[in-house]
TrEMBL record:
Location of the protein in the cell: Cytoplasm
Lineage: Bacteria, Pseudomonadati, Pseudomonadota, Gammaproteobacteria, Cellvibrionales
UniProt-listed GO biological process terms: protein refolding
Designated name of the protein: 33 kDa chaperonin
Pfam families linked to this entry: HSP33 (PF01430)
Protein keywords: Chaperone, Cytoplasm, Disulfide bond, Redox-active center, Zinc
Major localisation: cytoplasm
Annotated organism of origin: Aequoribacter fuscus
Length: 292
C-alpha cells in the first residue's frame, strides 16, 4: 500500500534516548469534512489543528475506543471539538461559529477551557481539563501535560485550511538513560530542535525529510505509517436507539404530528428518517415505558 498521498500517522523513536514521537498528515480528511460545513478560514485552521492533535494523542495510547478534544469559550467559536478513534477514524465540528472572522486563537477561544476525554470501549471515561490561557492550541496542550505531571509531552501543529500536520514528542520511562540530568538534557535537545520547525515545513515536508532536517545528528527510527481518514460513527441503528429511549407516548405524539421522525447528524449531515412502521415492534401505546 502506498502512503504517498494518504492521510496518515507515523511513529518514530530515538534509539539513544527514552523519547518517542508521532507525526500526522491530514489532507483528504479535511477536504471531506469541509465539504459538509462552510466554515470561515480561521475556523478551518483551528479545526484542522484539533483533528491533528486528536490523532497524535490517540496514537500514544494503548486502548480501543476514542479520544475527544473539546474546547468551549466566550470567543467567536462557542464550541469546537475533534474526535479520533484508536484506528484513526476522525471527525470534528465547530458550533455557533457562523460569524467567526478572526484567525487568532485567543480571539476565537477567549476565556475558554479545553477538555481531553479518553473513552475506552468497555472501560471508564477519563477527562482532563485545562484553561485556555496560551496563544495557540499546541501551547495549551503543552500546558495541560505540564500541569498533569505526566511524562514530558510537546506538540507542534499547523493547518492552512486545506491540509493539516502535526508533530508530537514524548518522554518515556527511563530505560535507555537512567541519569535524570542526562534525561533532562536529551529532552531539552530534541524539543529545542523541534522548536525551530516552521509551519510551512510541517505542512509541506514528508515525514522522512522533516525528521532528517530536525534530527539528522540523532539516532531516529521511523516506523511504518498507519492510515487515517475522516469517518463518522453515526448510524441508523444508533439514531433509532436514541429515539427509542423516549417514552412511547412521546414517540407516538411526534409521529402523529409530523408523520415521521428525523435525526440529523451534525458531524456529517447524514439524515435518518423513521416512520410508524419502524416503531411497529415497540407496540406504541401511550404511557407505557420501553423496556431496554
Amino acid at each position: 500500500m502506498s502512503f504517498e498521498h494518504m492521510d496518515l500517522t507515523q511513529r518514530f523513536i530515538f534509539d539513544d534516548a527514552d523519547i518517542r514521537g508521532e507525526y500526522v498528515r491530514l489532507d483528504h480528511s479535511l477536504t471531506e469534512l469541509f465539504k459538509l460545513h462552510a466554515y470561515a478560514p480561521g475556523v478551518k485552521i483551528l479545526l484542522g489543528e484539533m483533528l491533528s492533535a486528536a490523532a497524535l494523542l490517540t496514537a500514544t495510547l494503548k486502548f480501543e475506543g476514542k479520544l475527544i478534544l473539546q474546547a468551549r469559550g466566550d470567543g467567536q467559536i462557542p464550541l469546537i471539538m475533534a474526535e479520533s478513534t484508536h484506528d484513526r477514524k476522525l471527525r470534528g465540528i465547530a458550533r455557533g461559529a457562523e460569524h467567526a472572522t478572526s484567525q487568532t486563537f485567543t480571539e476565537l477561544m477567549s476565556e475558554g477551557q479545553l477538555a481531553i476525554t479518553i473513552d475506552p470501549i468497555g472501560g471508564n471515561r477519563y477527562q482532563g481539563i485545562v484553561t485556555l490561557e496560551a496563544d495557540s492550541l499546541a501551547k495549551s496542550l503543552d500546558a495541560y501535560f505540564e500541569q498533569s505531571e505526566q511524562l514530558g509531552t510537546r506538540l507542534w501543529l499547523a493547518c492552512d485550511g486545506e491540509r493539516a500536520a502535526g508533530l508530537l514528542l514524548q518522554q518515556l520511562p527511563p530505560e535507555v538513560t537512567k541519569d535524570p540530568a542526562l534525561r533532562a538534557q536529551q529532552w531539552e535537545h530534541v524539543t529545542t530542535l523541534a522548536d525551530t520547525l516552521k509551519d510551512d515545513e510541517l505542512l509541506q515536508l514528508d515525514s522522512d525529510t522533516l525528521l532528517y532536517r530536525l534530527f539528522h545528528e540523532d539516532e531516529v527510527r521511523l516506523f511504518d505509517p498507519e492510515p487515517a481518514e475522516f469517518s463518522c460513527s453515526c448510524s441508523r441503528e444508533r439514531s433509532f436507539g436514541a429515539i427509542a429511549s423516549l417514552a412511547r407516548d412521546d414517540i407516538q405524539s411526534l409521529l402523529q404530528e409530523m408523520g415521521e421522525i428525523t435525526v440529523d447528524c451534525e458531524f456529517c449531515n447524514m439524515q435518518y428518517r423513521f416512520d410508524h412502521s419502524d416503531f411497529s415492534e415497540l407496540e406504541l401505546q401511550p404511557d407505557t415505558p420501553i423496556q431496554h
